[in-house]
Amino acid sequence: ALNKFEAFPVDTWIEKYMINNDLKTSINKGKSYTRIDIENYGMKKYGEYAGIVQQYIFYGMTSEK
Questions:
Q1: For the whole model, what pTM was predicted?
Q2: Exposed, middle or buried by CB within 10 Å (0-12, 13-18, 19+), for 8?
Q3: Which pLDDT score is estimated for 4?
Q4: Under a CB-based contact definition with an 8 Å cutoff, are residues 8 and 46 in contact?
Q5: 17-44 burial code (b ≥16 CB/10 A, e <16)
Q6: How far apart are CA 24 and CA 3, in angstroms?
Q7: If you ran DSSP here, which 8-state letter would residue 48 be given?
Q8: Residue among 23, 21, 25, 22 nearest 33 (CA)
């Protein structure tokens, strides 16, 4: 995304993954999250390479059979 590797865009696939896997084990179990919450969490957790991690998550979610 224009050399902004720290960006963590959230679509339906990323939202589903983060809520069912990553955020499920966080301190705020049971909390409902907005896409902005997920984006901020992803950028904070994965830092300057959040966008690259996001691409791997997206690929993994969309290639499952």
A1: 0.80
A2: buried
A3: 83
A4: yes
A5: bbeeebbeeeeeeeeebeeebbbebbbe
A6: 30
A7: G
A8: 23
DSSP labels, 3-14:
T-TT-----HHH
Cα 34 from chain centre: 12
The answer to whether 36 and 14 have CB atoms below 8 angstroms apart is no
Q: What is the pLDDT of residues 7-60, one digit of tens each?
A: 999 999 999 999 888 877 665 666 788 999 999 999 999 999 999 999 999 999
If residue 62 lies in a helix (H) or strand (E), which one and from where to where?
A: helix 50-62
What pLDDT sits at residue 8? 94
Place of tokens 């957790």: 45
